[in-house]
Amino acid sequence: MAEVSAEARIEAPAAKVWAQLTDFTSYGRWNATHTGFPEGGPEPLETGATFTENMKLMGFPAEVAWTVEELEAERVLAIKGKGPMSVTVATRYSLTPADGATKVRIDGEFTGAAVSLMAGKLKDSATAALDESLRRLAGLVT
């Protein structure tokens, strides 16, 4: 298993950050690993909704079939998916209001046999992508 996380304070209210985070039509403007939604994002966005995302991590393209596992408006979006080579991916976005700004944390987890072969590189690449994603997200909402 490989676990990654990143956190940033974004100088915007949680409602504004949440609106951008859940606007799947503009996901590619901030999410550093996203390359497309072949059938669009989850519609409607609700627990149990499914969607497919094309991604690129460590230079490799991957398709992940996601399910929304937890959803609390302006607070939590947690998704879990199946990727290539039987890899399971989980991503959790947590928003915490902080004096007119928002603390945004992204936690990711990769599990599966293929992960153990490249856990170190995967952690480094995914952490860099999360940091870049938070930087871009902040730029869109501030």
UniProtKB/TrEMBL annotation:
SUPFAM superfamilies: Bet v1-like. This is SRPBCC family protein. It comes from Streptomyces peucetius. The lineage of its organism: Bacteria, Bacillati, Actinomycetota, Actinomycetes, Kitasatosporales.
